[in-house]
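We give this protein:

***
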Amino acid sequence: MVTFVMVTEYVKGFVAEMSEEREGQGLVEYALIIAIVSVLIAGSLATFRGEIEAVFTAIGTALG
């Protein structure tokens, strides 16, 4: 026979399990955002490579 205490313990366990899964889901979402931002930064650096080199060359020439 199922008692109220057994049902309560089951529900507590289920809620705890669901909250743990949501935390992991949030972690995955943050990791995906970081990965996408990293790819965008790498792409923009590759696109503007010549301009970035020119700026650092100008700085090096001014200092030297």
